[in-house]
Amino acid sequence: MKKGLGQLESRALAYTQMRGLDRLRQGDLVAALGLTPSQERELFSRLARARLIARVRRGLYLVPPRLPLGGEWTPDEATALNALIEDKDGRYQICGPGAFRRYGFDDQVADRVYAYNNRISGDRKVGAVRLTLIKVADSRLGATEEVRTPDGQAVVYSSRARTLVDAVYDWSRFGTLPRAFEWAATELAAGRVSPAELVRTILAYGNQGTIRRMGVLLEHEGVRQPLLKKLLSALRSSRSLITWVPDRPRRGKTDKKWGVVVNA
Q1: At residue 30, does pLDDT exceed 90?
Q2: Among 1, 87, 199, 263, which is 20 to 30 Å from 119 by CA?
């Protein structure tokens, strides 16, 4: 046990281990340990400051599966994210850097987890886990795959095709253009994503800019005309042009079909 841990803290952790608890809520220890509500609040605060439990929000804490011996404890990313979203009865899917790394698009290890969800917006920290939660409409959640961690937890990621689409749709947040075009071309060439699946995902989760930019790419990659026509039919009539790579100078060939200045 961590040096300097008091008798009450030791009893609290022993109680959670004996009961097989993975989280504690306000009131759980009042009767169990014979505490007043104020004593329980102070106990939670001391344990959290000692990094022996992790605060999800006021009144909800994650606890370690085993008593930490001589050190600090923090939940893993899956535990932290699941607890935070489950507490709000919400849904999420990991996106951005975590998904890019999962599918081999990028080998950079991010210092935080990004997740689209339908409940919470902003940055959160649970233990040592940093999260950036991007609140979206229910209709923007989908095209996912569920992964099981070694301890059996379910973690939801955006699918491979959805991650490619989001890298174009959410390029300003993730800084992914023009790299996302290279990722998509590579995935299509390798057969890991089919043109039909990518088009369906673009239509379901893209916007007008995504359709235009991906239309240019897919036509360049030789995707069949019937699939391209599905994208074209989803475009609203507009005389304005957008750039293929938004943060580069507006110089290049104009693709009038898609309304894009190909400035790569």
Answers
A1: yes
A2: 199
